[in-house]
């Protein structure tokens, strides 16, 4: 994670206090590694807010700060890293469950099938949480919500802050929300689906002072 001369990775921030540039991708990837390290952020807590804040603070101070130089206030840097690790911790737990859950197996069998690198007690607690009636009901609702999302996002994992900075560098103009939407919801041939065209028309009315491609 260090540059060749031993200096830390410098992360620039834009006027909305969001990281930009390739270094943002390096930071996000590193946050993903930390978020899935059970020695730093255990998976047996039911929800992210249940984790003691000291877990994150210790990680930021001991691991993040020596490796990254943030061109913003520490408050902004902490807020971004906190949000990034929170999202990646949650999605990491979901991936574990999708990989190791088997609807044809019993709860006890799944508990005994401990993933590599996960402490048994943490996995047992997490499986119990997943089999909780409220958790199962919430999971079903989320599946139904995802089924109704008919407009596909094609922008990959690159955040809009970074994409916005790249578009500004190319055009010299600050892109509006609808331009960012266009850039991340096009089909391979560059065209839009009918549902997307309707949405863009609404965005044009709400954001009339930006140029449209």
Describe this structure in words.
The chain has 213 residues and is mainly α. It has 2 domains: 9-148, no CATH class; 160-206, no CATH class. Helices cover 55% and strands 5% of the residues. The chain has 9 helices and 3 strands. It has helices at residues 22-35, 53-64, 74-100, 107-112, 120-130, 133-147, 160-171, 177-184, 194-206; strands spanning 9-13, 19-20, 68-71. A 3-stranded mixed beta sheet has the order 2-1-3. A hairpin with a 5-residue loop joins strand 1 and strand 2 (19-20). Helix 1 crosses helix 3. The protein is globular and about 60 Å long. The model is unreliable at 209-213 (pLDDT under 50). Residues 151-176 are annotated as: Disordered. InterPro entries: Probable_transposase_24. Pfam families: Transposase_24.
């Amino acid at each position: 994670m260090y540059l060749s001369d031993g200096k830390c990775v410098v992360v620039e921030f834009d006027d909305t206090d969001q990281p930009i540039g390739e270094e943002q991708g390096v930071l996000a990837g590193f946050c993903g590694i930390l978020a899935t390290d059970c020695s730093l952020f255990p998976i047996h807590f039911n929800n992210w807010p249940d984790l003691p804040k000291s877990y994150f603070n210790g990680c930021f101070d001991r691991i993040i700060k020596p490796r990254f130089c943030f061109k913003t206030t520490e408050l902004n840097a902490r807020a971004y890293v906190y949000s990034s690790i929170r999202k990646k911790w949650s999605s990491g737990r979901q991936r574990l469950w999708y990989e190791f859950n088997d609807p044809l197996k019993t709860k006890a069998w799944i508990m005994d099938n401990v993933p590599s690198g996960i402490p048994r007690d943490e996995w047992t607690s997490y499986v119990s949480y997943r089999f909780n009636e409220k958790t199962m009901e919430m999971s079903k609702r989320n599946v139904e919500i995802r089924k109704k999302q008919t407009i596909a996002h094609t922008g990959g994992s690159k955040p809009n802050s970074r994409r916005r900075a790249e578009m500004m560098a190319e055009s010299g103009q600050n892109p509006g929300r609808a331009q960012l939407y266009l850039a991340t919801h096009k089909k391979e041939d560059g065209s839009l689906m009918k549902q997307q065209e309707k949405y863009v028309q609404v965005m044009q009315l709400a954001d009339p002072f930006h140029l449209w491609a």
